[in-house]
Amino acid sequence: HKAFDVQSIRRDFPILSQQVNGKPLVYLDNGASAQKPLTVLDAMDRYYREMHSNVHRGAHTLGDRATAAFEGARETIRAFLNAGSTQEIVWTKGTTEAINLVANGLAPKLKAGDEILVSHMEHHANIVPWQMVAERTGAKVMPIQVSPEGELDMDAFNSLLNDRTRVLAVTHVSNVLGTINPVKELVSQAKARGVITLLDGAQAVPHFQPDVQALDCDFYVFSSHKLFGPTGIGVLYGKSALLEDMPPYQGGGEMIERVSFERTTWNVLPYKFEAGTPAIAEAVGLGAAIEYLNGLDRPAMEAAENALMARANQLVETVPGMSIIGTAKQKAPVMSFKIDGLHPSDIGTLLDQQGIAIRTGHHCAMPLMDFYGVPGTARASFAFYNTLDEVDKLFAALQKVQRLFA
Ligand code: PMP
Asked: Do you know which Pfam families this protein is assigned to (predicted)?
């Protein structure tokens, strides 16, 4: 392992060393999308320069190289998640498509009166696909309540879980609150009642490595672009028995075994769910991103992220009227906040003038905004390449914004 030296790590991310509005860029919008190390850019460049062809055609050398790189990346993902087999790793466009695929795939199992449990802190991507399937099948989407601190109400969960519950779909880490949910406990209680479980790992995988066998969830989904890989690709992990049992999501090439006008049969897993030419270079890029992470000292990286969060928490009181939304005991380095007298979008604009990138708005979690009675929040989300100095710059800028505009 390379020692965890944040300055040398930052040199691996060329985009970070630039000026924005005349100031050194301070990128604290990692929850929306993270930056990419050179090894990812190089892997994609090299793929196009030396290997590109369509995959799984087998007729020539470039096709073999492209297929080997593409399937090699799938194996890298399998190992990252500790899945039992690459058959259980399906490429999707991202978290959103993965959840839509599962919701549609489970639709034939749902009937009127069935219940789908989600939580009140879900991203719209883990609410709307279930609502659409509920609309078609007569099932109901039930939200698990959240406490004022931003933790899942486990009593509410226990009383919602009943004989009509068919699916539990919850986020591993909240994109707004940073809360790390007790997913192992949630899954085990759901499984005890035969409920199918899906975990949205979009905000979890950038900070820690999940073990899908230890979690024992049926599905685990995430997006590459938040995990330091390219846009346009993501992952659906699913237990093979469940994937076998689900109909294909889209029809076309790649996903069939044999097509005739009398009868068409499906390809084996995971190809049954991968209609059409896939995002090959992007898969290679995501594989390279995970290899980059594998080369870091993970415990040191997690400690560094916790130190960023601790420093931020300490500095909150230096900004009059500032308060944090989401104070769960178990948190990833995500900080939603408000400042009395300031609209979140003005905070974002004023920080941008000082070179600091954060996200403002509803973060695709409108039910959660309604729960807290806010139109939106300002959110700083950290990655392992951020520095304590950047946290200090954020707070110096917030003090200035508060002084001048609140
Ligand atoms: N779930 C969570 C928790 C997220 O944070 C996001 C992205 N903001 C998504 C789902 C959707 O991911 P994507 O837009 O990459 O499909």
From this structure: Aminotran_5
**E strands, 201-355, in order:** 219-223, 234-238, 256-258, 265-266, 322-325, 334-339
The answer to whether ipTM exceeds 0.95 is yes
Relative to the CA of 95, which ligand 1 atom is closest? 16
Closest CA to 164 of 120, 112, 126: 112
Domains and CATH numbers, the chain: 6-29+297-405 (3.90.1150.10), 52-294 (3.40.640.10)
Q: How far apart are CA 164 and CA 116, in angstroms?
A: 9
318 CB-near residues (< 8 Å, 6+ apart):
395, 399
Ligand 1 pocket (Cβ < 6 Å) reads 94-96, 123, 125-126, 171, 175, 200, 202-203, 223, 364
217 is catalytic: no
Query: At 357, phi and psi to the nearest 5?
Result: -100, 115
pTM: 0.98
The two structure tokens encoding residue 54: 């369509």
**Of all protein residues, whose CA lies closest to atom 4 belonging to ligand 1?**
202
CA 76–ligand 1 middle distance (angstroms): 22
Q: d(Cα 120, Cα 150) in Å, to the nearest integer?
A: 10
Directed axis angle between helix 38-46 and helix 280-294, to 10°?
140
Residue 391 φ/ψ, nearest 5 degrees: -65, -45
pLDDT tens sequence across 94-103? 999 999 999 9
Distance 31 CA to ligand 1 centre (A): 9
pLDDT of residue 3: 60
Strand order through the sheet with 322-325: 322-325, 334-339, 377-381, 359-361
Closest ligand 1 atom to the C-alpha of 122? Answer: 3
Residues of the chain with pLDDT under 50: none
Q: Which of 204, 364, 368, 378 is catalytic?
A: 364
**49 alpha carbon – ligand 1 mean position (Å):** 31
The proportion of the chain whose per-residue pLDDT surpasses 70, expressed as a percent, equals: 99
pLDDT reported for residue 149: 98
Each residue's pLDDT tens digit, 222-273 = 999 999 999 999 999 999 999 999 999 999 999 999 999 999 999 999 999 9
> Which of 101, 177, 223, 235 most suits a substitution to test ligand 1, by most atoms within 8 Å of the C-beta?
223
